[in-house]
Every structure is written in structure tokens, then in C-alpha cells.
Amino acid sequence: MALLRVHSLVCIFATWFISLVSSACECGYSVNSTLDPEYAVFTDLLESDFTKIKNFKDDFDWRPQVWQLDPVAALGPYGRATVLEAIVPNPAVNVSINATGIYGGQAGLNLLVPHNYTLINGEKYLMGAELDSTRNDMFYGTFRIGYRTTKYPGTCFGFYWYHDDNQEIDIELLSRQINATDTLINLVLHTPVGGTNLDALPGTYQVADLPYNTSAQIHELRFDWTPSAITWYQDGRQIWTISNTTLFPQQPGHIVVTHWSNGNPLWSAGPPEGNAALVLTYVKAYFNSSDSQRQKDHRERCEAVGGGGAVCQIPSPVGPPRYEGVSPDELPYFFSNDPARNATYNQTVYEEKTSGGGKRRSEAIGSGLAVWMLFLQWGIPVLGFMLGEWRPRIGGYMHSLY
Ligand SMILES: *[C@@H]1O[C@H](CO)[C@@H](O)[C@H](O)[C@H]1NC(C)=O
Ligand SMILES: *[C@@H]1O[C@H](CO)[C@@H](O)[C@H](O)[C@H]1NC(C)=O
Ligand SMILES: *[C@@H]1O[C@H](CO)[C@@H](O)[C@H](O)[C@H]1NC(C)=O
Ligand SMILES: *[C@@H]1O[C@H](CO)[C@@H](O)[C@H](O)[C@H]1NC(C)=O
Ligand SMILES: *[C@@H]1O[C@H](CO)[C@@H](O)[C@H](O)[C@H]1NC(C)=O
Ligand SMILES: *[C@@H]1O[C@H](CO)[C@@H](O)[C@H](O)[C@H]1NC(C)=O
Ligand SMILES: *[C@@H]1O[C@H](CO)[C@@H](O)[C@H](O)[C@H]1NC(C)=O
Ligand SMILES: *[C@@H]1O[C@H](CO)[C@@H](O)[C@H](O)[C@H]1NC(C)=O
Ligand SMILES: *[C@@H]1O[C@H](CO)[C@@H](O)[C@H](O)[C@H]1NC(C)=O
Ligand SMILES: *[C@@H]1O[C@H](CO)[C@@H](O)[C@H](O)[C@H]1NC(C)=O
User: In angstroms, what is the span from residue 162 Cα to ligand 8's centroid?
Assistant: First the structure.
């Protein structure tokens, strides 16, 4: 009994101590509380609130991709043309009032797959979009995306961590696998011991059933990678886990979001019957870095506040992210949108030009600008294809993308 009392006093003291110092997050961000039996701490973060990002060129956390695969290389009747024009921001007028974007509809970043093919050197290509994170040093982490799929069958939405084809933690959602009540998602751990997607090793591929139509509202997909488990979640609920660590990635990587079609009936199918829009409201990643400079930065800022106590728990609500009819403090949470809390000190984060807070690495700025210079030079001829699931609203350059 005496022992028990001492123990609970220690707990109360620990809670008090943590709440005193945890307003800043110099030592990291945790899944579960550090007082829980199982938890994981990550040192670095990447947060993109796409309901607020007006100029995607200001978001140096992402490198929008431009590449082509001809129909043979793309394994489809169609080739794949990954273009910047298929990435279209539609930020909320004021997300604290409602989630209506400046062009109408759900606010967020649109990744588009147009219905119509485009001819390149006489061959048919379907256009699509891909974002790769600028950070390429992610090793362990919790990776989360707020999304709403297209209602048109015939596209593939991928959200994955990637080192190479043998070290990849993957979620793929085929819009042909959506019906009125359910959506199937394909979860894959690509391993060094062979197998990809449908021919993956037993135990590395799982089809999970989400009990809703993913094109009707925003939901969250997530995967956590720790030294002991890789676990997938939907709307905060666990759906699958792998704990055979010999299959786990061994090298650092980056995250990718992609929306594409090649017309192959065995996978993406398509082309989609209309202009297909995948809407992203956020990506949040809390991860450890393989970069020795970032590791040193973490050690220094954590030691400067006296060590391990300054860990902030990552909010992990159960249920879909909510945007309509909620008060501002019930919107999805971002440490980097909370300057009063000083929760992203010395992190490499996206920030609006006017606000203070995090710090950005200079090399990321260079690559972001280079890509967007290309967009400005080459964007205009392609504007004609945007009709259907998104509609033209107002005149002007960005508006004509709708
Ligand atoms: C968080 O706690 C839950 C049980 O409450 C557990 O299943 C999960 O693995 C924990 N996550 C981590 C990263 O430890
Ligand atoms: C958004 O709306 C809220 C609530 O009405 C208001 O307090 C806030 O100032 C608005 N923000 C902007 C940028 O207009
Ligand atoms: C969102 O708020 C704006 C401004 O109050 C209003 O014009 C618009 O109709 C609202 N949208 C919805 C879907 O309620
Ligand atoms: C596809 O192209 C055809 C021919 O130009 C056009 O009539 C049609 O409206 C386009 N469809 C969509 C969905 O853009
Ligand atoms: C899923 O929901 C969307 C939006 O409500 C709707 O347009 C679509 O028809 C639904 N899909 C199916 C297969 O019922
Ligand atoms: C919808 O998809 C689920 C999961 O594949 C399946 O169990 C269900 O029977 C489907 N419903 C209809 C009406 O086809
Ligand atoms: C991430 O790195 C920190 C600092 O080295 C370490 O304390 C923590 O356990 C690591 N997280 C995981 C999940 O391994
Ligand atoms: C883990 O995976 C490896 C490689 O496929 C396999 O040889 C081993 O038997 C697996 N271990 C367990 C406990 O399933
Ligand atoms: C903050 O980060 C920068 C860039 O990584 C590093 O040079 C610096 O030493 C860090 N400062 C502190 C106090 O952590
Ligand atoms: C944020 O935290 C850092 C590290 O603890 C501290 O040096 C800095 O002064 C704080 N900034 C503000 C605005 O409180």
C-alpha cells in the first residue's frame, strides 16, 4: 500500500512536470503519451495544411513531379504524363467559418486525372499528379493524409513512404473499388526479399475494407513505422500490422502522394469517366531523421531544455477529420499552425511568409523555385482540359484551372 502511494505520487509529479515543460516540443512528438505502456517519439515533422495553402510554390516541403512513361513502360494501354498543371490549390476562404474553397467545393489541394487523353509523339497519355516530400531522410515515423477520392472509377491514389522498389510502405486506393457503402484499400510492404503488389510475399499484402464511400467526405489514412511494427490506420482505427522486422526498410526515404491512371484494367483501370479530382486536406508526418545534422540539432535543442520531458503528444482523434459545423479548435490540429505554443522550434516546416516560428533549410527553397519556374513557362497551354468534376468559376489565371 505504501509502495502504491509512492508510485502514484511519482506519477502525479511526472504529469505535472511534463505539463509544465511540454508546451514546446524540443525533444519531439509522440504517438500515445510517454506515460502509456506503448509509445513512440519522433524528432522531426512535416505538416501541410492544404486548406490554407494559397500558393503551392510557397510550400517548400514538397517537390511536385514532372515525368512521363510511354504506354509500354507504364504497362497500360495509355502512357502516364505527370504534370504540374494537375496540382491545383483550392484553399478555404476562411476555414474557421466553413471548408468551402475559394473556387467552391471542399477546400484542399486537388490532384487531377483528366478524362481525356493527350497525344505525345503520336501516343496516348493520361495526365496525373505526384508530390514527393523534399525531406528524403525519413526513418521511422507516423504518416497521415486527409483525403477525399474521386467518384469516377478508373484512377489510382497512392500514399506511401519510399526508398526503392524493395523498401516501400504503401497504400493504394483504386477508385474502381469504391461502392456506395465500402472502399477497398491495398496495403503493401515492399520488401528486399522480393514481390510487389499482387505477387507480394504472403504477409506483406493486405486488402482492407473501409466501411464508407471514400469519395463522399474527407477521411484519414495513416501508417506508423517503428522499430517493432508497421501499422496501418483509417480514421484513427488500426486496420493491419506487420511485426516481422526482417521485412522492414533498412534505409531512409521520402513520402509520395500520387493520383494517376494508365487504363490497365488489372489495376488503375480507366480512363476515368469524368475529370477525376483527389482532394487532399493535409499531410502530417512526424518522423526520425537519418541526417546527422538534424540528429545533432535535435540533441542540442532537447538538451537545452533539460532533456526528455519536452515531448508533445500528437493528437490522434478517432473518426474522420471534421471541417463543417465545428469550432476552430476542433479542426485538424497542426503544431506548425499554433505559433503561440512555439511547438516547431528549429524544425524544417512550411510557414506563411508573414508568420514566425519554424526554420526552413535553404536547399529546399532552391528546388521548389526551380520547379515553379517551369510551371510558369509551360502551364498555360494545358488549361483547356479542366471541366467536369471541377468546374470553371471565375475568370483569371488560377481560376481558369477550374
Ligand atoms: C499506441 O497505443 C496503442 C494501444 O493503446 C497501441 O496499439 C499502439 O501500438 C501504440 N502506438 C505506438 C506507436 O506505440
Ligand atoms: C475567419 O473567421 C473567424 C471567425 O469568424 C475570424 O475570427 C477570423 O478573423 C477570420 N479570419 C480571416 C483571415 O478572415
Ligand atoms: C461558407 O461561408 C461563406 C461565407 O459565410 C458562405 O458564403 C458560403 O455559402 C458557405 N458555404 C457553405 C457550404 O455553407
Ligand atoms: C474530351 O474531349 C472531347 C473532344 O474534344 C470534348 O468534347 C469533351 O468535352 C472532353 N471531355 C472532358 C470530360 O473534358
Ligand atoms: C459516393 O459518394 C459520392 C458523393 O456523395 C457520390 O457521388 C457517388 O455516387 C457515391 N458512389 C457510389 C458508388 O455510390
Ligand atoms: C460494396 O463493397 C463491399 C466490399 O467489397 C462488398 O462487401 C459489398 O457487397 C459491396 N456492395 C455492393 C452493393 O456491391
Ligand atoms: C527517434 O529518435 C529519438 C532520438 O534519437 C529516439 O529517442 C526515439 O526512440 C526514436 N524513435 C523511434 C520510434 O525509434
Ligand atoms: C519473417 O520474414 C522472413 C522473410 O520472408 C521469413 O523467412 C521469416 O520466417 C519470417 N518470420 C516470421 C516469424 O514469420
Ligand atoms: C537549428 O537548426 C539549424 C539548421 O539545421 C542548425 O544549424 C542550428 O544549430 C539549430 N539550432 C539549435 C539551437 O538547435
Ligand atoms: C521557442 O523555444 C525556443 C527553445 O526553447 C526558445 O529559444 C525561443 O525563445 C522560443 N520562442 C518563443 C517565441 O517563445
Answer: 22
